[in-house]
Amino acid sequence: MRKLVLEDEAQRHIQALLISEPKLIKKIFDLIGDVQKHPFEGIGKPEALKHELTGYWSRRITDKHRLVYQVTDDDIIIIRCKDHYDDK
């Protein structure tokens, strides 16, 4: 199984969502668990991202929030989990 890595931005997002939308935390961790088992299919409608985000994947947390991650041979790197990847 690949090692899970949470980027600093993803950690900040989880901390912010604990305060603003705590009910989403379980869903985020359910998605992360599914990503570890099945990186390219499963719950949250996995989608390969394009253009400047080629090489990254996205899953829906809600209509507003996306889990964005990258899969390498050794790691699953969680990049962000708040807002839409176009909303920076």
Automatic annotation (TrEMBL):
Protein name: Putative mRNA interferase YoeB
Keywords: Endonuclease, Hydrolase, Nuclease, Toxin-antitoxin system
The UniProt record lists the keyword Nuclease: yes
NCBIfam families: toxin_Txe_YoeB
A Gene Ontology BP annotation from the UniProt entry: RNA catabolic process
Family statement drawn from the similarity comment of this UniProt entry: Belongs to the YoeB family.
Signal peptide: none
Entry-linked InterPro entries: RelE/ParE_toxin_dom_sf, YoeB_toxin
